[in-house]
Specification:
The complex is a heterodimer. Chain A is of the alpha+beta class. Chain A is built from 26 helices and 20 strands. Chain A has 3 domains: about 150 residues; about 290 residues, no CATH class; about 80 residues, no CATH class. Chain A is elongated. In chain B, helix 2 runs antiparallel to helix 3 and helix 5 runs antiparallel to helix 6. Classes of the chains: A alpha+beta, B alpha+beta. Chains A and B meet through helix 6, helix 7, helix 8 and helix 21 of A and helix 2, helix 3, strand 6 and strand 7 of B.
């Protein structure tokens, strides 16, 4: 057993297997179980070959395996195109290659393939943790390459690590220059129709009971907002995504009419902010209620939402300006009005209640007030897990029987009540709130903050935001969802944890992650252009950037070469030389420093006659030095002896003050 | 003769210093694969507009560049010296010994030569030695004048090499003749007594040397020339043996004759006897000891016949 372990330790294939496993682990998230199993079987087989060299697979078996796995992967992914099938195939083939690899050349190939596997990992995830993990992998690859190409085995692991660090340190500045100046181009080299591998949770374009409450279980980030002006209060952080107009008795849908443009009159300066949306696989953009302008050739729709021209598959950034106090002057056009009043003929009790309110109220505002008071006084309960609604007339059931609901229940029933009372209304989907990070003052919004609220149209005032949830659960608006749901059962873990320390760490990491997003992930064609325009102070084209790239990169390469060779020279100044210089320095104040053309032996004589009390010590040190330096005696002991003697040598003060010069 | 060997060996350079003028560098096979991988990663990064992939690609590219500098640096500023190489008998491997010195204390690299897939490390200022081993197939002087010295350290991605032009020579003695080829009438193997064959066979005269027995003085010649001559005898006369090339008439092949003489010299050197050598162009006076043996063997090695 022991000798087997020794064999495994001494064989270079062990380090290659370790590396391959390390770079493959992130791929295990999406490859099927039989692939993971085969990967582990193949590497165990290869380890077994180390112990019993005859257990190797023949050519025929390898070919058969290759065919079999190709077929399985083709079947699983429905073809070889696309990054999933491609990287799956790469992974399995690499491990098949591992099985038949024997010599150093094979191992080098595997190590370089592992670099490629690292690159495919980055196509699946670009987050900072992934990047850091991959950085570790790259470093380990580097060390593995070092030990593979070093055949004399006189180099220790420590020295390898030192070399790896040195190489990395020299590479990083060059990498940075390449990253900043390499001309980015938009568009693709080849056509890809890759679907995102994971279905992402998030808002959908319709709303029915239970749909939003599901999102509370996810703390995935949706977007970050960085305010250029002062931040609004927490209770004003209503982020619009889309408006829902059509109600069929169960589901609210998005098919909105073409409204006429509404004229907004601002009553204050409002807020300016930049939003970075995470990849969402849809086109919705999130805007603070109520958006006035938006950047980047995007436009705000008539219902004050905005869409991205392309599906958002990677980080997307835009800035916008929103008003907090405003009114709208024009009338709602008749088509939109009728759509905003349309109701299916069910929920008769609800309609009767609303019409009763309408008869007893002078203004729409009074009806709204009655509806909100109804929620607060009639024992309504805000809960994540309400009783299921079984009836077709679900609003009736909710308002008069169960009285338990999440924001979608309240938004839905409030809209039905308003429409029944003749007030045009719609449902708005989006997010409410946001966590401000104390480290960078950036507001982060995650899926658990998903929210639904209402807008009602009041002539001469325009669309007015009403949030019925605020009447039942005021903490949901003023604080956060965790506070609003406090004490309830079955809460998701991330809503239960509230250690201050943990939160601090999370926020710090979030701030770093944001920097990563802003500086690295978001660095693309347009941000590069902006950055270089700021640097050069004039507008630049792709041609200019390419030209600049060549100039900068040549300059950097020359600089790197110079710095590299200078540092290599300086390393020659070894410890003995340094100690010698220190020793010479001790005589500088005595006016007896070494003359430039004077050899160490002559200088020793001069020193001995000048400092007779210490002559023995001086000559001992100098002789050691001469021995080390000129007779090229390699003896670690004498070098150490020399260095420590120099350290302990003190020129006695009476010697210096004796006489100035001779 | 020794002088001539030394002179011959010294004429070309005995040391070779490597500097940037004689270093060549190209990507190794793994290096080309690395470059292809980089291009693939770069095109992926462009296609998916993937910043981390760009970072990875640029890091690897920079690393490649630094590695190139390092690999070049590995073999530059080294001085190679040819050491004296020990003579060997023909058909056995001859080791040409070189050593490398560096003026850099921190240098710690592995160098390789193609000749025997030699790998050796240069560590700091230590003198490190490497050997180029070759099979000798001809008696005489064997040279190594050009060989490749290369390094792929640290990552094996670049191959930096230099053609070392340095003369290192070794004397290749003739191969001692195997036992069965030895002429029975000339010098018989193991038994000391059989040395008396061809007793007192007059071989010629030579200059008198101190220590020569007065019995063997060639009185007739001395009378004629007024100089002291000593008679030489082939077989042992109690003092020495002379191995004469021309007496080996039974064998026609020059090399075989030299092989036999070589074996005789070796044999004689094992016993305490004084022996000498007579070649058509050169005669070595009888003596004994290691130096004498090498002198005789060198004469055999370098004999032009």
């Amino acid at each position: 057993m022991r000798q087997h372990i020794d064999k495994l330790k001494s064989d270079p294939v062990s380090s290659v297997i370790f590396l391959l496993l390390l770079v493959s682990i992130p791929h295990f998230r999406y490859i099927p179980w039989w692939s993971i199993l085969s990967v582990f079987s193949l590497l165990s087989w290869r380890l077994f070959i180390v112990i019993k060299p005859k257990a190797g697979a023949g050519k025929l078996i390898t070919v058969l395996f290759t065919l079999l796995f190709s077929l399985l992967i083709y079947n699983h992914a429905g073809g070889f195109s696309g990054i999933v099938a491609g990287s799956h195939l790469l992974l399995v083939m690499t491990f098949l290659k591992l099985l038949e690899s024997r010599c150093q050349r094979d191992y080098m190939l595997l190590v370089i393939l592992s670099l490629f596997i690292i690159a495919t990992n980055l196509l699946f995830s670009q987050t900072l943790p992934t990047a850091l993990y991959m950085l570790c992998c790259v470093f380990i690859t580097l060390v593995t390459l070092l030990s593979l190409s070093e055949k004399s085995s006189r180099i220790t692991l420590f020295e390898k690590l030192k070399t790896a660090l040195r190489l990395t340190a020299f590479s990083l500045p060059l990498m940075l220059v390449l990253f900043v100046f390499f001309p980015r181009i938009s568009g693709q080299l080849w056509h890809t129709n890759d679907e995102q591998t994971r279905a992402r949770s998030g808002l959908s374009d319709s709303m029915e009971p239970g749909k939003i409450s599901q999102l509370v279980y996810s703390n995935e980030r949706v977007f970050r907002a960085d305010f250029a002006t002062k931040q609004p209060e927490k209770k004003q952080l209503y982020w619009r995504a889309l408006t829902l107009w059509h109600y069929d008795g169960k589901t609210w849908e998005n098919n909105k009419p073409s409204e006429t443009q509404t004229q907004i009159h601002l009553l204050d300066t409002g807020y300016k902010y930049t939003i970075t949306v995470e990849a969402s696989n849809n086109k919705w953009l999130y805007l603070l209620d109520l958006p006035v302008t938006i950047s980047n050739s995007l436009s705000i729709n008539t219902d004050f939402t905005a869409l991205s021209p392309k599906t958002i598959r990677s980080l997307f950034q835009y800035s916008a300006h929103s008003a907090s106090r405003y009114y709208m002057s024009n009338q709602l056009d008749s088509r939109s009005r009728s759509r905003a009043l349309k109701l299916p003929g069910i929920n008769t009790n609800t309609i009767a209640l609303a019409q009763d309110w309408k008869r007893n109220s002078a203004t729409p505002e009074a009806i709204i007030k009655k509806a909100l008071t109804h929620f607060t006084t009639q024992n309504f309960y805000y809960t994540l897990s309400p009783a299921k609604l079984r009836n077709l007339a679900s609003v009736d059931e909710f308002l008069f029987e169960t009285r338990q609901g999440f924001c979608e229940h309240y938004a839905s029933s409030f809209a039905v009540l308003m429409r029944a009372a003749g007030i045009p209304s719609r449902v708005v989907l989006g997010y409410l709130g946001g966590e401000a990070n104390p480290y960078n003052n950036i507001i982060s919004v995650d899926q658990s903050m998903a929210h639904a609220w209402n807008e009602v149209w009041i002539d001469n005032r325009g669309w007015i935001r009403i949030d019925p949830t605020a009447s039942i659960a005021p903490h949901r608006v003023s604080k956060d969802i965790a506070t609003a749901l406090k004490g309830q059962q079955n809460l998701p873990l991330h809503l239960q944890l509230d250690f201050a320390g943990l939160q601090k760490i999370r926020q710090l990491f979030d701030a770093i992650d944001n920097k990563w997003n802003q500086w690295i992930l978001n660095y693309n064609e347009s941000t590069q252009k902006q950055f270089i325009e700021i640097l050069s102070g004039k507008s630049v084209s792709l041609h200019d950037i390419s030209y600049l790239f060549i100039k900068v990169i040549l300059g950097t390469l020359v600089l790197t070469v110079i710095v590299y060779f200078l540092s290599a020279k300086r390393q020659k100044n070894d410890a003995v030389t340094k100690a010698y210089q220190k020793f010479l320095h001790k005589f500088e104040n005595s006016g007896f420093s070494k003359r430039k053309n004077e050899g160490p032996a002559d200088y020793t004589k001069r020193l001995e006659s000048r400092f007779p009390q210490q002559s023995r010590e001086i000559s001992r040190i100098m002789n050691l030095y001469i021995e080390l330096k000129f007779r090229k005696i390699k003896n670690a002991d004498s070098a150490d002896r020399f260095i420590s003697s120099v350290r302990h040598f003190r020129l006695e003060p009476d010697n210096i003050n004796d006489k100035p010069n001779s | 003769m020794d002088y001539w060997i030394k002179k011959k060996a010294r004429q070309p350079r005995k040391s070779y210093s490597i500097n940037r003028h004689n270093i060549y560098i190209l990507p190794s096979k793994a290096g080309w694969l690395y470059i292809i991988t980089l291009i693939a990663i770069l095109s992926g990064a462009i296609n998916y507009n993937n910043s981390p992939a760009y970072l990875l690609c640029f890091f690897l590219a920079s690393l490649g560049f630094i590695t190139m500098l390092q690999t070049h640096q590995n073999i530059s500023q080294l001085i190679i010296y040819a050491e004296h190489s020990a003579p060997v008998f023909c058909h056995s491997p001859v080791d040409f010994i070189f050593h490398v010195t560096s003026d850099d204390n921190n240098r710690h690299i592995a160098l390789e030569t193609k000749a025997n897939n030699n790998v050796f490390a240069v560590k700091g200022r230590e003198k490190s030695q490497f050997i180029i081993s070759e099979i000798s197939n001809k008696r005489g002087l064997q040279y190594v004048s050009r060989f490749k010295l290369y390094s792929e350290y640290p990552l094996g991605l670049f191959h930096a090499w230099t053609q070392v032009e340095i003369i290192n020579s070794a004397i290749i003695y003739p191969r001692p003749a195997p036992h069965n080829l030895m002429p029975t009438d000339f010098f018989a193997g193991e038994q000391q007594q059989s040395r008396h064959i061809g007793d007192d066979e007059f071989a010629g005269i030579r200059d008198f040397q101190k220590g020569d027995s007065p019995k063997s003085l060639a009185w007739k010649t001395i009378a004629k020339t007024n100089r002291l001559y000593t008679k030489e005898f082939h077989a042992e006369t109690g003092d020495f043996l002379i191995f004469d090339y021309d007496k080996l008439t039974a064998i026609n092949n020059t090399e075989e004759r030299l092989s036999i003489l070589c074996a005789l010299v070796l044999k004689a050197s094992q016993s305490a006897i004084n022996y000498g050598l007579k070649l058509p162009a050169k005669t070595i006076k009888p003596s004994s000891g290691e130096a004498h043996k090498h002198k005789c063997l060198s004469s055999l090695a370098l004999a032009k016949l």
